[in-house]
Amino acid sequence: MNFDDTPQEAAFRETARKWIEANAPKELHAELSKSSLGRIRLANRDIVDVGKAWQKKKFEGNWACLHWPKEYGGRGATPIEKVIWQQEEGVYGKLTQPFQIGEGMCGPTVMAFGSEDAKRRYLPKLASGEEIWCQLFSEPSAGSDVAGLRTRAEKKGDNWVVNGQKIWTSGAHYSDYGLLIARTDPNVPKHKGLTMFFLDMKSPGVEVRPIKQANGMQEFNEVYFTDVVIPDSQRLGAVGEGWSVSLTTLMNERMSIGARLATGVPEMFEFCSSLMLEDGLAIDDPAVRSKLASWAAKSSGLKYTSYRTISALSKGERPGPENSIGKLVSGMMLQDIATCAMDLQGAAGVLTGNDEETVQGQFQQMLLSSPSMRIAGGTDEILRNIIAERVLGLPGDIRVDKDVPYNKIPTKGR
Amino acid sequence: MNFDFSDDQKQLRDQARKFLAEKCPPKAVRVVLDGKAPYDKELWKGLAEMGFLGVAIPEEFGGAGAGHLELCVIAEEMGRANAPVPFSSTVYLAAEALLIAGSDAQKKKWLPAIAAGEAIGTLALFEGKGNPSPKNVKITAANGVLNGVKKPVADGAIADFAVVAARTGSSGRENDISLFLVDLKAGGVEVKSLTNLDPTRGQAEISFRECKAEPLGAAGEGWSILTQMLDRAAVLCAFEQVGGADRALEMGRDYALDRIAFGRQIGSFQAVKHMLADMYVSATLARSNSYYSAWALSTNAAELPEAAAAARISATQAFQHCAKNNIQVHGGMGFTWEFDCHMYYRRANAMALGLGSLSYWEDQLIERMRKKNAA
Ligand SMILES: Cc1cc2nc3c(=O)[nH]c(=O)nc-3n(C[C@H](O)[C@H](O)[C@H](O)COP(=O)(O)OP(=O)(O)OC[C@H]3O[C@@H](n4cnc5c(N)ncnc54)[C@H](O)[C@@H]3O)c2cc1C
Ligand SMILES: Cc1cc2nc3c(=O)[nH]c(=O)nc-3n(C[C@H](O)[C@H](O)[C@H](O)COP(=O)(O)OP(=O)(O)OC[C@H]3O[C@@H](n4cnc5c(N)ncnc54)[C@H](O)[C@@H]3O)c2cc1C
């Protein structure tokens, strides 16, 4: 075991560092450092625009999606090099937010199941940030139970015609393409009748309606499909194999999440290091210290768990369900940290504006956004089920719907 | 022992619940949430007409002359309804301050106006970050003239008067602090609204410049009056928090019964069941602690300081816990603006700070227990 860079890795790090030093939007450093979750605090600038500029620069310098093969816009880097890059990219990594679904989930799915033509056409533009992708999985009555989805795709000649509704689609309002899972056969059990597609979000019949979130922002959407035509060439995987294709997507989601997961710990550490309480610095207060220490240990535990995963990856192993712990731990931790930081601010902790007392509402925004971390991409409860069942080998819940034809499943409002 | 509210008090609760269900549905709360009004004026008027604003104010000052137990019952319903009115500032803090320390003339001037819904009052204690402490009171009063800035002041932008804590000495002791009554509509006051976590309850910054103020209570007695005020308010807020926690639990339970996933009600999954059961447990502990503190308040018992701190802690925790896990039970729906879950989450986390934060009250509880055990 060795955590030092090998000579090659050190050289790679040096190259990356120099390039970032020369190219990163340094004027945004301070603002980005302060935004740990939710609102990326850029005064008067849109995160998508700024993100696109940074992504494009990275692409031109050959640093975008660097673990992808060169022919699809990547650098052919190793998993470890990717981690090194992310470490060096630091706070500028927050600018990649609009591209994470594309890079982390949609891209890898296209890579695994797309035709050679599709890969060459779509992946480089995804990598460069020119085209943004979204994930069209969840539906009003199918979130945790995504295999229970209703959106129908019916074959008409060489095309598919899609009708239905998705919900919670992050970034659909600025996305160019979407990865869509739809029901192609309602007469077989629910997992068997699904098929994966991708589509142009500007296709006739696609309507995106923003949803206002609990934190006041509008990042996710409802997406309606009315007789939307998708060519069969945009199918990913075989007809009826959509579920196993989606597992590839979700598996990659786990891999992509690990290293970049916000924990709130660095922000909290910094905050406690400078906050004066009545009897001195917060970080010198035994009660604060005790909490900070357990968060720091959780966060390093997560970091090194992800390093172990990466080591396994670099030996060619697949990331397994054990990686579910990342989001499970950090989601709750963010919520606890935000609550504690506000507590330390005392009565002023309620302020969310440009107030000095609350560091411009940084932790308040974290508090308002953190519930989504415990829901999006698999709820805490689903993640615990995954750990219990897939890692520990415990039997699953009794399933009333698994082997029943989809259209015979007892439902409400479906 | 009869550790319960009387039948009359329960009847009052039912009456308050019915009234608020009608006059303060979530739709009404949202008018204020969305910034279309600073508070619900109609509701405020209605609360006055029902006699709720003056329930604990003696009849001679225009109130109903009931008592604190009756006020607790109403507080719980206010919390349940997430009412967007300056009830806690006016009734738990300003009115109580007058009852504890006001002169006859001061009581006559403000208490009937409060009971009639014609005056909104608040407490201006905090000055930036930090918890209640004489050290944190920096603004000064000399010859009845105030200078300095208070922030945040709950409901400060809509208040007609404020109880202001100010420094009148520099000995470094509690008796450096005195309380003042300030008519915010008179001169020398500048008020600025501040954005905050819970838009259904405004926060403001109030600057006093050469502002005339009359003393409330004896000079140098400010901190001791304030401590009594905060203890009383802790009890009353605890009831609001218990009401909010209960409502959040109820919303979660109802959704768990209604929502189907994997062909089953999500409430049939143990993960969801246990989450709700844990919410019930913390809400119940909070309720019981609150009942005890209500008894202490209503009888002015020596146990009040300790009981108030315990109620404050468990009610704060219960409301925060129930509000956050209510979102969790709702899944994606819980994270929308459209569903009401976040209104309770906002209120729970704002209320957790209003009278000083949880860690402050934890500290108070242990100090008070230690004092008692030593005696
Ligand atoms: C901010 C945000 C962004 C999102 N972005 C996207 C996106 O880009 N694309 C996309 O497709 N989706 C997206 N989602 C949707 C997300 O994946 C779903 O919200 C999530 O999977 C939960 O589904 P649901 O909302 O239907 O909740 P439900 O599945 O109805 O869950 C409700 C409650 O029941 C519990 N529950 C459900 N089933 C079980 C079970 N078997 N055992 C125990 N407990 C159970 C849940 O844990 C939860 O507490 C996003 C969600 C959020 C909040
Ligand atoms: C100190 C002690 C004193 C006791 N005294 C008495 C007594 O005086 N009289 C008497 O009759 N019995 C007594 N018991 C027995 C006690 O009631 C049982 O141990 C208890 O009901 C658990 O049953 P079990 O041991 O069969 O465990 P199991 O029921 O096999 O439980 C094993 C584990 O599975 C969990 N589990 C089981 N079913 C479920 C479920 N449906 N949902 C979720 N989790 C579940 C349990 O929580 C536990 O963690 C005593 C036990 C102890 C430890």
Automatic annotation (TrEMBL), chain A:
Residues 240-392 form the Acyl-CoA dehydrogenase/oxidase C-terminal domain. Keywords: FAD, Flavoprotein, Oxidoreductase. SUPFAM superfamilies: Acyl-CoA dehydrogenase C-terminal domain-like, Acyl-CoA dehydrogenase NM domain-like. Residues 6-130 form the Acyl-CoA dehydrogenase/oxidase N-terminal domain. Its cofactor is FAD. Residues 134-228 form the Acyl-CoA oxidase/dehydrogenase middle domain. Belongs to the acyl-CoA dehydrogenase family. This is Acyl-CoA dehydrogenase family protein. It comes from Bradyrhizobium diversitatis. The lineage of its organism: Bacteria, Pseudomonadati, Pseudomonadota, Alphaproteobacteria, Hyphomicrobiales.
TrEMBL record, chain B:
Keywords: FAD, Flavoprotein, Oxidoreductase. Gene3D superfamilies: Acyl-CoA dehydrogenase/oxidase, N-terminal domain, Butyryl-CoA Dehydrogenase, subunit A, domain 2, Butyryl-CoA Dehydrogenase, subunit A, domain 3. SUPFAM superfamilies: Acyl-CoA dehydrogenase C-terminal domain-like, Acyl-CoA dehydrogenase NM domain-like. The keyword Flavoprotein applies. Residues 144-209 form the Acyl-CoA oxidase/dehydrogenase middle domain. It comes from Bradyrhizobium diversitatis. Belongs to the acyl-CoA dehydrogenase family. Residues 6-118 form the Acyl-CoA dehydrogenase/oxidase N-terminal domain. This is Acyl-CoA/acyl-ACP dehydrogenase. Its cofactor is FAD. Residues 220-358 form the Acyl-CoA dehydrogenase/oxidase C-terminal domain.
